[in-house]
């Protein structure tokens, strides 16, 4: 088969439904964040990570992400409060050591909850809370908003995958 014949046989491929659903879910997260006057970053990322090829797989992934988000959020709040209470300077070797050591109970809690697959999202949520929190808002509000943002992305993704 010559090169010109091979070029003729190539068809333009359009995005599949998973791509379309992902784009729609991200857009809805953007709109919800606009209404809530928050950053869409966490909800958009969560919606992308949760979107699967069908509703059943998305539901399993979403459940794991919700468990991981709640665990990571809880530990993120505890870490911020503890670091503030002991007046530990942010973004130095001690602060980073404490954050790193927190990953041990986070992963262990996921295992105890029989949700080892949610360990990575727990760690991501924990780090997104503890590393990006700059003391500009209350630790509880900051952690709670990150958890809400992530849950919004998961729920939007599940909803879109269910109806389309």
TrEMBL record:
Integral membrane bound transporter domain ranges (all copies): 24-160
Superkingdom, natural source: Bacteria
Entry-linked Pfam families: FUSC_2
Main localization of the protein described in the UniProt heading: membrane
Transmembrane segments: 16-35, 67-87, 93-111, 141-160
Database matches in InterPro entries: Memb_transporter_dom
Any one annotated GO CC term: membrane
Location of the protein in the cell: Membrane
Membrane topology term: Multi-pass membrane protein
Keyword terms: Membrane, Transmembrane, Transmembrane helix
Name the UniProt record assigns to this protein: Fusaric acid resistance protein-like
């Amino acid at each position: 088969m010559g090169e010109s014949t091979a070029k003729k046989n190539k068809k333009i491929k359009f995005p599949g439904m998973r791509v379309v659903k992902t784009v729609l879910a991200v857009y809805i997260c953007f709109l919800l964040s606009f209404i809530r006057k928050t950053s869409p970053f966490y909800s958009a990322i969560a919606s992308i990570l949760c979107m699967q090829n069908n509703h059943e797989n998305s539901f399993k992934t979403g459940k794991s992400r919700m468990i991981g988000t709640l665990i990571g959020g809880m530990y993120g709040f505890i870490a911020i409060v503890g670091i503030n209470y002991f007046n530990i300077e942010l973004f130095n070797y001690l602060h980073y050591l404490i954050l790193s050591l927190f990953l041990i109970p986070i992963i262990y809690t996921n295992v105890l909850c029989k949700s080892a697959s949610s360990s990575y999202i727990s760690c991501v949520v924990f780090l997104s809370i503890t590393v990006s929190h700059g003391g500009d808002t209350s630790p509880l509000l900051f952690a709670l908003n990150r958890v809400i943002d992530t849950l919004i992305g998961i729920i939007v993704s599940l909803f879109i995958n269910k109806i389309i």
